[in-house]
């Protein structure tokens, strides 16, 4: 184990690392400047458990009903070696599909070990690349580097080779009604699919294949209208891929974050947990409420210390370099002398304060 891997193991308090999935990686890119999230995700810390131990449980996620419905729809589409899925791709998308092989990579010889499953995925994809034969790979285990550390992607997707190119097939249980689906849900599916496309490209790159062997067009399979009948459409994820690659590249490398932290820091449950979490800098913004399990803790912390981030990302960006509301108010009313880099911001704040006073006086 490397020093970094040992340090990350200690951060988890010896607990096994939590697997990433495409949703958590897509959400990770929503706040790439947050060292706290970058460190916890790179270490595979169970943020949901940490938030509960801190007394700030997360309150988002799918309802049990939605999860059950999603699982049932996926099982239906994948039944009998994906028979329904293949019919759909032939009929709806007009694909000329010969008979294809089906490989389920969820468990290898009764062993669910991630390294073993990843190795098998790699081996089978290498064989498919060489033969060019169409094969459905269910639950391929993929890997992406997150903040300098490899993260395994929990597979809930199918990789499919067609005419020498691999495609990702994403099965979602939200309905397509009269050819239209909820834009937010399609956007979330596109972000998650982009994570799989990127991870598949990275894996094929290791095997010497160019990036365009993995298509940027994803097959999205959803229930049609108010039935359980599946329908398929093509989703171009190029914009999401561009954002994802840019954001992942920007994520602070975790070994640099670790250098600044005490050697004995751990997120294991206990009295020292709040202090340990606060030791790692956060970058809270209201958007965290929809994307991160730590949001209630971080919001409380941001409010308590008067962070400008608590007012929203745009406010923090407008106040570039002013981290606390108290400092912003002090600069606006002239009780705090600005440092050279904040002279311009202070001037704008004083102008804004004067205009506000004049508007209020006028109204009175
Ligand atoms: S909720 Fe906290 S840990 Fe999560 S991204 Fe926001 S600031 Fe970072």
Could you characterize what this model shows?
This protein has 364 residues and is an alpha/beta fold. It folds into two domains: 3-61 and 251-318, no CATH class; 64-249, Lambda Exonuclease, Chain A (Alpha-Beta Complex). The protein is 48% helix and 12% strand. α7 (183-206) crosses α8. The structure holds iron/sulfur cluster (SF4). Iron/sulfur cluster is lined by residues 31, 34, 36-37, 282-284, 288, 292, 294-295, 298.
Q: Please tell me the CATH architecture of the largest domain by its name.
A: Alpha-Beta Complex
* Integer-rounded radius of gyration: 24 Å
Overall geometry comes to globular
- Which ligands are bound? iron/sulfur cluster
The average pLDDT score comes to 85
Roughly what fraction of the amino acids lie in strands? Answer: 5-15%
Count of helical regions: 14
Structural class: alpha/beta
CATH class of the largest domain: Alpha Beta
Span of the ends, CA to CA = 69 Å
Count of domains: 2
Number of DSSP strand runs? 8
What is the CATH third-level topology name of the largest domain? Answer: Lambda Exonuclease, Chain A
Order of helices and strands: HHHHHEHEEEEEHEEHHHHHHH
Helical residue percent band: 40-55%
Task: Tag the structure with descriptive keywords.
364 residues, alpha/beta, Lambda Exonuclease, Chain A, 2 domains, six-stranded mixed sheet, binds iron/sulfur cluster
Question: Can I get a quick summary?
Answer:
The protein is α/β, with parallel strands linked by helices and 364 residues long. Helix content is 48%, strand content 12%. It has two domains: 127 residues, no CATH class; 186 residues, Lambda Exonuclease, Chain A (Alpha-Beta Complex), CATH 3.90.320.
